[in-house]
Amino acid sequence: MAGGRGEPAVPADGARRGADPGAAAGGVRGPERHPSVLPQQRGGVVPPRAVRTPGRRVRGDRVAGIERHHARRVGRPNARPRRRTPPHPGGSDSVNLADLLRATADARPDKAAILFQGRPVSFGDLDDRVDLTAGALSALGVVKGDRVGILAGNVPEFVSCLYGIVRLGAVACPLNVQLTPEEFTYILADAGAKVIIT
């Protein structure tokens, strides 16, 4: 029955006039009624991540999960903030990856650490390469806390460079070999790299 005694007219498909067409068709409802939108946001501005366009699917329900997590944090204003410890400016004085490599090389020097194109590199050989790299960097004036860029592909030399940098207490700045010269020049300048290994 359409339009009788103040009742809203209902079209044949069952949707009411003025209703969200996505909701009537079983799709995603408008942002103001979406369950992932926080109640305090319904009357105000909705952040873009909470807006869902009708007919557009969001990967899984990741956005809603993030918003639920945010709602739990917002609902607890006295919640203890997450502890985020900044890195030590001069490197760490405790055991680092290069020390673990040396311990493994002492315990199992002949065991394969890397297999590259069918050729194994043992822990003992890798540790020797790391010592050579660290010595060369030290001769160039690299000290603890300095940044060193690495421009190398997926080769064993990348690993020895990385561990050599760490052995000195310096900071490795690996670069993607597919970047343009302008891009990696910008990254190295921004990082304040003292040396780059190619």
Number of E-state strands: 5
* Proportion in β-strands: 5-15%
By secondary-structure content and strand pairing, the structural class works out as alpha/beta
Enumerate how many helices there are, as a single number.
7
Mean pLDDT: 72
CATH architecture of the largest domain: 3-Layer(aba) Sandwich
The number of domains: 2
CATH fold descriptor of the largest domain = Rossmann fold
Distance between the amino and carboxyl termini: 79 Å
Low-confidence stretches: 20-29, 56-60
Percentage of helical residues? 25-40%
Largest sheet: 3 strands, parallel
Q: Strand order, biggest sheet?
A: 4-3-5
Shape: globular
Q: What is the highest CATH level, the class of the largest domain?
A: Alpha Beta
Order of helices and strands: HHHHEEHEHEHE
Over all CA atoms, what is the radius of gyration?
Answer: 29 Å
Structure summary:
The chain has helices at residues 21-24, 39-42, 62-74, 97-107, 123-139, 156-168, 181-191, and strands spanning 112-116, 119-122, 147-150, 171-174, 193-197. The protein is α/β, with parallel strands linked by helices and 198 residues long. A three-stranded parallel beta sheet has the order 4-3-5.
Walk me through what this model shows.
The structure is a single chain. This protein has 198 residues and is an alpha/beta fold. It has 2 domains: 28-74, no CATH class; 97-197, Rossmann fold. It is built from 7 helices and 5 strands; from the N terminus they run H-H-H-H-E-E-H-E-H-E-H-E. The protein has helices at 21-24, 39-42, 62-74, 97-107, 123-139, 156-168, 181-191, and strands at residues 112-116, 119-122, 147-150, 171-174, 193-197. The strands form 2 sheets. Strands 4-3-5 form a 3-stranded parallel β-sheet. Strand 3, helix 6 and strand 4 form a beta-alpha-beta unit. Helix 4 packs across helix 6. It is globular and about 40 Å long. The N and C termini lie far apart (79 Å). Mean pLDDT is 72; it is low at 20-29 and 56-60.
